[in-house]
Amino acid sequence: MSYIDGFVIAVPTANKQQFIDHARRFDELFLEFGATRICECWGDDVPEGKLTDFHRAVKATAEETVVFSWIEWPDKASRDAGMKKVMEDPRIGPDTPMPFDGKRMIFGGFAPVVTLGG
Q1: In angstroms, rounded to a whole number, what is the distance separating the alpha carbons of residues 35 and 28?
Q2: What's the rounded Cα separation, in Å, for the pair 91 and 33?
Q3: Secondary structure E strands in the chain
Q4: How far apart are CA 5 and CA 70, in angstroms?
Q5: What is the pLDDT of residues 35-77, one digit of tens each?
Q6: 31 φ, ψ to 5°?
Q7: Cα(55)–Cα(47) distance, integer angstroms
Q8: Which of 112, 113, 27 has the alpha carbon at shortest distance from 69?
């Protein structure tokens, strides 16, 4: 069964193209190291909730757009090995600028329990 890494971030709306360029560059690493699919989704219909919501989760400001992304791996072992390689890759360094505040990113690994369709 596949394994999914999910991410939610707040990206300055003015940085949309920078985010897309950043994602295209670094998503190739995930694919190189075993990911089977990646989806980067720019918030389009992200309502504010009464108790909680995506905006609050990442402390998004009025000048930011919420982005939801996921990476699909063949299984958790492939994810663990691939993610380790990505984090150790010299193409991603501490001086690599990100077009968003990485400290407000929320993320986690998930084991699918129901999947439908293709």
Answers
A1: 9
A2: 13
A3: 3-12, 37-42, 64-73, 106-110
A4: 5
A5: 999 999 999 999 999 999 999 999 999 999 999 999 999 999 9
A6: -65, -40
A7: 8
A8: 27
